Amino acid sequence: MTIQLQAKQVSMRFKDRVLFHIPSLTIGPNEAVYLKGDNGVGKTTLLKILAGLLKPTSGDVLPRHQSLFTGLLRGPGRKDVIYLHQSPYLFDGSVFQNVVYGIKHKNLDLHDKRAEVISALRLVGLETLADEHVSVLSGGEKQRVAMARAWVLKPSILLMDEPSASLDQESIERLVFMAQDLLEHGSSIVITSHQTNALTRLCRKQWWIKDCTLIESPLLQIIDKKHKDKENNYVASNSD
Fold it and tell me: Which pTM value belongs to this model?
């Protein structure tokens, strides 16, 4: 199932400081959004509000219904929306135990659950490490385990907070592969990043938090305009 989130008149204030005020925002279904902005403008805060993990000072995000998962832990959260932290929390256990946790309440027998987990680990290239303790993993491998754990839940919307920070090229490529798979099945993704990379190139819409509000634009048009400007400059320079 895919869903659409709508934010209306959402504001976040810390004491006398207004972090941002967003009159309206919509995400999903089947959208890929690049969320950008300087440090401290509220990108992580906005993602947590959309996930239902943080309550805004004012405004509302619809639908309001709750989920069993708070970034893969029980607690308040929005159904079918998963927030993937830059430094994901992994349980004290094996790689397999961490991934299967996401579907432990799913109505599947043990054989089918194991098959889903191994499929997820195969997508991120970690199936041979299924029985290893997470303490032996590198930072990039831990991020890939967290992505696999999110993928098995088949979220309608996946919010990825700086997912490629400090990752090697192989880890980034694995995350791209899983994000593409989710998009192909109708899910939406939102990615924050301080630099363009293979993950942000999946996006076709841009949200930019600037001057305490959010500016939205179709990223494809921005990319096309840059290419057209380069092409026009090339033609002009060669016609002189």
Answer: 0.83
